[in-house]
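User: Okay, second chain of the day. Same drill as before: sequence in, structure tokens out.
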Amino acid sequence: SKSAATATQNNTAVNVPRLGADVGLNVRAASKAKNLEPITSGTATQPLVEESLNDAFDVFLDTHAVTNLLSHVLISSVFSPFELIRTRLIAQSGNDRRYYGPFHAAAAIAATEGLHQFGALYAPQHVLSTAICKGISCLLHSLSSSIIKHDLGLSS
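Assistant: Same drill. Structure tokens below.
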């Protein structure tokens, strides 16, 4: 029997599903790992995607601004659900815990925010904000490196 706990969000009642006893223990045990930083940052996969884009577009430079930007936006779009879950876990207060861990957060978001189950994790409002943020960060990093090297004449 699955019951739902009621939580308040923006002064409206929201039903947050509680997992049944049969799967609840497994999800809570798997949710003990709170550090999602290695997954959400994409540091391991972004260079691989950038190199693949360089090969696909016949770019022979080590770092090209366009393929660098495309790889950051692509990786951030793919890993957007992990970023969303990580943000929700960090943002919840200690006294009013809504999520018990990453797996419970994913299940609760999928159940309460509509779309078709885990499609809620890839909702446009979540993916676009993450992709835009990572894209702007990538552009600023490239611009600052270019200004430091070419305009100021400094090297690393």
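The helical segments are 21-30, 37-41, 46-56, 65-78, 80-91, 102-112, 124-151.

User: Thanks, on to the next one.
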